[in-house]
Amino acid sequence: MIASLRGEVRHIGLDHVVIECGGVGYKVLVAPNTAGTLTRGTEGYLLTSMVVREDSQTLYGFTDAPQQELFHLLQTVQGVGPRLAMAAIAVLDPAQMQTAIASGDLKTLCLIPGIGKRVAERIHIELKDKVSAAPAGGGAVAGSTVPAGGVSQQLLDALEGLGFTPKQAEPAVAAAVEAGPDKSVSELLRDALKSLGRG
């Protein structure tokens, strides 16, 4: 099982990166905020989890252990697979997710694309005893995916990782966030890329 990868970042996409290790390029599915921490042509490091299905073997990548643990924990809930778990990581950081689960904040959980009220309730019921609420100041927010500064910074990091300069990225990010305040980070990143001619 591949537990981590360290090597040259060969490609950064919307939902994946390619890291070359020992002459082999590994495609790793990641959240946009994780992709934003990497830069093409430089050494990158990711914790990884491999999900094996009858017809596929897929690597998922994470910047740190809390993200990876959240990925595995969410999949213990019936109806939550790896892609839905990755969508959760893209929208909420582990502390926000823990707070939402522990407090039964279904509104925040439903901000995750693909999670409706029924699945949100199931996540709360099945995981509330397995997580602890985040410390004061790190709680989940209602009405937006993450605090505005956090979303903007994630988008800026992702765009810079894709080769855009801050001068190019900042107007695109500002326009995307203003036009779609209720959208997920992934959707906002796509909107920003469209405005930059990469959509």
UniProtKB/TrEMBL annotation:
Q: Name one GO cellular component term.
A: cytoplasm
Q: Which InterPro entries match?
A: DNA_helicase_Holl-junc_RuvA_I, NA-bd_OB-fold, RuvA, RuvA_2-like, RuvA_C, RuvA_C_sf
- Report residue spans for region: Domain II: 64-141
Query: What keywords are annotated for this sequence in UniProt?
Result: Cytoplasm, DNA damage, DNA recombination, DNA repair, DNA-binding
Q: Which family does it belong to?
A: Belongs to the RuvA family.
What the protein does comes down to: The RuvA-RuvB-RuvC complex processes Holliday junction (HJ) DNA during genetic recombination and DNA repair, while the RuvA-RuvB complex plays an important role in the rescue of blocked DNA replication forks via replication fork reversal (RFR). RuvA specifically binds to HJ cruciform DNA, conferring on it an open structure. The RuvB hexamer acts as an ATP-dependent pump, pulling dsDNA into and through the RuvAB complex. HJ branch migration allows RuvC to scan DNA until it finds its consensus sequence, where it cleaves and resolves the cruciform DNA.
Q: Which stretches make up the DNA helicase Holliday junction RuvA type domain? A: 1-61
Q: Report the CDD domains cross-referenced here.
A: UBA_RuvA_C
GO MF annotation terms: ATP binding; four-way junction DNA binding; four-way junction helicase activity
List, for all copies, the residue spans of the domain called Holliday junction DNA helicase RuvA C-terminal.
Answer: 151-196
> Assembly state and interactors?
Homotetramer. Forms an RuvA(8)-RuvB(12)-Holliday junction (HJ) complex. HJ DNA is sandwiched between 2 RuvA tetramers; dsDNA enters through RuvA and exits via RuvB. An RuvB hexamer assembles on each DNA strand where it exits the tetramer. Each RuvB hexamer is contacted by two RuvA subunits (via domain III) on 2 adjacent RuvB subunits; this complex drives branch migration. In the full resolvosome a probable DNA-RuvA(4)-RuvB(12)-RuvC(2) complex forms which resolves the HJ.
GO BP of this protein: DNA recombination; DNA repair
Where it sits in the cell: the answer is: Cytoplasm
Q: Where is this region: Domain III?
A: 151-199
Q: What is this protein called?
A: Holliday junction branch migration complex subunit RuvA
Give the organism the record lists.
Answer: Tsukamurella sputi
Q: Does the keyword Cytoplasm apply?
A: yes
Cite the domain annotation text.
Answer: Has three domains with a flexible linker between the domains II and III and assumes an 'L' shape. Domain III is highly mobile and contacts RuvB.
The protein's predominant localisation is cytoplasm
